[in-house]
Design brief:
By secondary structure, the protein is mainly β. It contains 1 helix and 10 strands; from the N terminus they run H-E-E-E-E-E-E-E-E-E-E. It has a single domain, classed as Neuraminidase (6 Propeller), CATH 2.120.10. The protein is globular. The chain starts with a helix and ends with a strand. 23% of the residues are buried.
């Protein structure tokens, strides 16, 4: 489906004109760095909005890394972006951030040890203090070509299911 029919579909459904839908550009040319790519956002238990994106001088460059921004509950402005640490040795992208029912914040991403995303593997790191600090990233998959883009869901038995 192209973007035009999708916009037409949304407009015909009345979603683009809905006064309850708020749009806001958070990251643009005013933020240093040539390349900024898929953002992930979650609302933390304390009401803060927490956003993660990846950026660098290009999509396939060695300086590609994750950056975080936060809008504290009640604030109108986002914090300046800062790199997430600790970071893996290889370029990183495609973040997915999610706070589990137990309060742990999970950050999934894709690390690219080779020249293209076909070598990608999924990493995971967790934060136990509301995304203020992160544990070392560790591999979640070891098979080349695995990627993540969606948040986990909690199954009826309490297990987490992450689409890869």
């Amino acid at each position: 489906m192209s973007i035009l029919p999708l916009c037409t579909l949304l407009a015909s459904a009345g979603l683009l004109a809905d006064p309850d839908v708020v749009t806001e550009r958070v990251v643009g040319p005013e933020i240093p760095g040539k390349y900024k790519h898929p953002a992930a956002i979650t609302e933390l238990d304390n009401g803060d909005l927490y956003l993660v994106y990846y950026g660098g001088s290009g999509e396939y460059t060695d300086d590609s890394t994750l950056h975080e921004m936060r809008r504290r509950k009640g604030d109108a402005k986002w914090s300046a972006p800062r790199p997430i640490t600790p970071r893996p040795k290889s370029p990183e992208g495609n973040p997915v951030v999610w706070q589990a029912p137990d309060g742990v914040v999970w950050l999934f991403s894709v690390v690219r040890p080779g020249a293209t995303w076909s070598t990608s593997r999924v990493l995971v790191r967790v934060s136990r203090d509301g995304a203020k600090t992160w544990e070392e990233p560790r591999p979640l998959t070891t098979e080349d070509g695995t990627m993540v883009r969606g948040k986990p869901i909690v199954l009826a038995g309490g297990d987490y299911l992450l689409p890869i």
